[in-house]
Each structure stands twice: as C-alpha cells, then as structure tokens.
Amino acid sequence: MTIDAPEAATEGAQSAEYDAIIVGGGFAGMYMLHQMRQLGFTSHVIEAGSDVGGTWYWNRYPGARCDIESLSYQYSFDDSIQREWNWSERYATQPEILEYARFVADKLDLRSGMQFDTRVTAAHYDDATNRWDVETDQGDRYSGRFLIAGTGCLSVPRLPDYEGLDAFEGDWYHTGDWPHEGVDFTGKRVGVVGTGSSGIQSIPVIAEQADSVTVFQRTPNFSIPAHNAPLTQEQRDENKQVFQEMRREMETAAPARAGGAMQIPKAFDLTDEERQQRYEQLWDMGGVAFLTSCADLLVNKQANDTAASFVREKIHELVTDPKVAELLSPHDHPLGAKRICVDTGYYDTFNQENVSLVDLHAAPIEAITAKGIRTADAEYEFDAIVFATGFDAMTGALLAMDIRGRDGVSLNDVWAEGPRTYLGLQVVGFPNLFTITGPGSPSVLSNMLISIEQHVDWISDCLEYMRERDLGTIEATPEAQDAWVQHVNDIGDATLFPQANSWYVGANIPGKPRVFMPYVAGVGPYRQKCDEIAAAGYEGFELAKEAATV
Length: 550
Ligand code: NAP
Known about the structure:
Blueprint: E1 17-23, H1 27-39, E2 43-46, H2 55-58, H3 79-84, H4 94-107, E3 114-115, E4 120-126, E5 131-136, E6 141-149, E7 171-174, E8 189-193, H5 197-209, E9 212-217, E10 223-225, H6 233-251, H7 272-285, H8 301-318, H9 322-327, E11 341-343, H10 346-349, E12 355-359, E13 365-368, E14 372-375, E15 379-381, E16 384-387, H11 396-400, E17 402-404, H12 411-414, E18 433-435, H13 448-468, E19 473-476, H14 478-493, H15 523-535, E20 541-544
The chain binds NADP nicotinamide-adenine-dinucleotide phosphate.
NADP nicotinamide-adenine-dinucleotide phosphate binds at residues 65-67, 154, 160, 175, 193-199, 201, 218-219, 339, 342, 360, 365, 388-391, 444, 503, 508.
C-alpha cells in the first residue's frame, strides 16, 4: 500500500483513515497540516487545547513573552502572512503570539483539519498493515500511514513531587498551565518557586500587584535585559521589505561560536577594555544576542568567565542589597550553558520592599503545608503559590503517549537511557514516524519557527519523494542513527553546555537520563546536512516498497 495520490485524497472525509495523523496544533502542527494539504495528502491534527497555538495556548502567566524578537518569530513560508500581520512590540506578549497563531489559522482555514480538546493516548504501528493506529482520550481511533509529532519541546509542565500540596488552603498555579481567566493577586501574599525564564518574567509583574512576593530560588540564572519597546510603523514596514532575505540568512547561519558570517571576535582577541566595551554594547542592545558578544563564549570556559563576571557585576549594580545581589549571581554554571533569560526589570524588583528572596540551597523546601511553604529552617504563609518549575523538556510529550513501533516495542523502553534519533527526525524501529524538532536536532537552541519550517519542509519533500516512487515506508537505519547520536554527543561535548544541570540534559527531572539533547552545530550546517541526505536518496534511511500483508 502506498500514499494516496493527490486526486484520490479527500480532505475532510468522514473516514478515520488518513495519510498522516499529526499530533499537536502549535506552530509545527499548523504548518504541517498546511503543507499536507498543499501536496494533496489527507491528514488530521489532534490537539489537546481548545484552539491552535501550542505552548502559547497554555503559557498564559503574567509577563509571558517570547525571548526571540517578534519580527523574527514568525512564519516565512507564505510571504503574505508577514505582510498582513503587524507586531506591536519588539518582544511579543503571549496574548499577541496567540492572536498571531489564530490569524494564521483563520487565513489558511486550518481549524477545519483539526480536532481540539483531544489528547493522543496511544499510537501503535501495525506491522501487518504498515499503518499507525492512533487512540485518543475521547475514544477516537484513527489510522495513518504516517505519524507526525508536532508535540513541542516545552509542553509538559513539571511540578515537583512536594509532600502536602493537596493540603494547601490557598490557590496554586503552574506557569505552564495558567488559568485562562487570569489571576488577580491584588492584596495577596504570593510565593513563587523557580527562577528560570518563566519565573524571571512573571515575578516583576506579580510583584506590581501582590501585597508581598517571596521568591524561592534554588539556582540563580543569568538574565539579560530585554529593553522591550513598541515597534514603530517605520520599523515594521522596513522589516516587511527585508524579512525574506533576512530569514534566508538566518536559516543558513553558522552559530556565533563558530565565528559565523558576522565576523564575531573571540574573547581574548580583544583587549580587556575592548571586551568590556563589547559586553556593554550587547547588554545595552538587550536579549539573547548577548551570547554572540564573543565567538567562543560557549566553547572556552575562560572566555565565558569574562562574560559571566560582567553580568554578575551588573547584578550587583542593579540590586541595592549586596547580600541579595550575591544570592542572585550565578556561579555554578557557565553563562548560556543553561538557557539564558531575558527580563524586564527582574533584578530591580528585588529592591522593592514587598519582595524577598529565599535561598533554597541553604534551606531546601521540605513540604507544602496548609498555610504555605516549609523549608528546612522556616515556614512561610501564602494566599497563593506560583510554581515556575519548568517542563519535562524535549522528550516529555513524546513519551507521555504510548508510542509503539515494530513488534510492539515501546518508545519509552527504547529511550530508557535517553533519546536516540537520526537527525532528530526519526527513530529506528518506528517506521513512518517523524518528530518535528525532535531531540538530536537544533530545536531549542534555535529560533523555533526556523527549525519548525525546516523540518516540515523536509518531511513534506520526503513524502512527495516516496509518493513519486511508490514507496511505502521510511525508517532510519541503526548505523545511521548510531553515527548521528555519536556526532551530536561529540560536538555537544566540545562545548560548555554539558557542564550545566539544565533541562537541555534532563537534569531538572529526578531520574531522567542525563543526555545532552539538542544539536549544537547551528541551523545552517544542520540544514545543509539534512538537504545532502535527502539529495543522496535519503541516505541512512531504508525506504521500502513493501505491500501491506492484509
Ligand atoms: P526552567 O528554566 O526549567 O526553570 C525552572 C525553575 O524551577 C528553576 O529555577 C529550577 O531550579 C526551579 N525548580 C525546579 N524544581 C524545583 C524544586 N523541586 N525546588 C525548587 N526549585 C525548583 O523552566 P522555565 O522557567 O519554565 O523555562 C523553561 C524554558 O522554557 C526556558 O528555558 C525557555 O527555553 C522556555 N521559556 C521561554 C520563555 C521566553 O521565550 N521568554 C519564557 C518561558 C519559558 P534549578 O535551576 O535549581 O533546577
């Protein structure tokens, strides 16, 4: 059996059989659906939320914004989208990004191919029919020749296993699963646990409203000011003219640490004064671009130390109490080896009288009590607790579904020691399963929109290639996967990333195997590799014509 020819495909038919089942209606699933339609494949998107948007549908906490500039954080596949859409600020808020996703869904009529409020619970490959049998929590059963996971890298919120949470008499929230009606903290005593990007973005906003905010910090993070501002009409118009050209440059870029096209200097090619000046410039510019201040920041610890010291000095300048400033200053990991944060007024917030900081390294949380939080040396009373404690990143959403490949083998078992993929796109033993921005691809180390478009385009080309040649299945070979995993590890090990206890290595989840999951070579070299593999007839994949035995 092969993929339906375009003329035979009937989108929207009542049949529960599709060419592809797409899991997730975020930016990945949305574009994948559009491409499938363009190519005449039938497909069906299953999404847990009540609308499109994925991570931006759920992460509605106060202050939620993207840390990639809005003018870059948008689709490029259809130029009319960026021409018709107008971003209001340098860094878009969550509501505006969600509005953008809705705008695209309206424009391309995407919702008609999507089923909302539904979770995929199981997806099993049937060796007899060479199809994926998919079950949902609504009792649906679908069949797809292809299973395409657009499940996101940061979509499964992680709540630590605290004793006593059920007994807490106040309200509690997780930043990654925020109430849609919003939360009014006026007059409340609020505890916030966690100081990653979500904590750092939400704390200043909660502190504007609440009576008091107590921040529970286990590990301080490096945060760079966003210097957010409204965009002018002129800036927007200018961007519309150059957007496609700029995007093509970004898509082929080598990472800054490799020198890149921008001729970025190495830290010790500069004098102390020049280096300081460069850090000042990038600090004033704001945002994650600070990591591009020197080409070797993520490969040379001494170089990294110079940038880390610069940021620590800034923290001491911004925070008036030197003890608090020191507690907020990271010393345990190289700058950027954990996802760098981008903030608006985070450090200043600790100068407010209603904000205090608790050091969990000195006294860890022992339990949640009826009244609040008990640490090893004190008990704190709250009306509300906000857990900004992160996600089961990169593998969490895939492993939450019961995915079984050939011979009923479970993905959970195959990845028991950590994820193994070929190109972050396929897994040996799971034919016709594709993972958009899967582990082993640049994913979270890139602008996600760039990586999503690249993967969706690659998968679309692959499906067309198979249709043209009457091929039924594609599966990574064990040799290609082993070599890719080795390569991902080798280049990861040549950087400072593995030195941090980050979610990049799964360190935030007790018991999760410690494996550095993203591919660090940069989206340009990665794209080139993927394109070469496709041009060589999908080297490292086995493509079979095999007919179903039913
Ligand atoms: P995160 O970076 O994993 O931070 C979680 C925080 O919770 C950390 O400070 C962590 O401390 C703390 N924590 C976890 N378990 C704890 C426990 N048992 N007791 C005390 N503290 C605990 O999660 P996140 O802030 O949600 O961000 C995750 C990623 O999502 C970001 O890195 C970013 O890629 C993305 N994100 C992006 C944006 C944006 O675009 N601006 C916004 C939000 C999120 P330790 O460090 O000690 O583990």
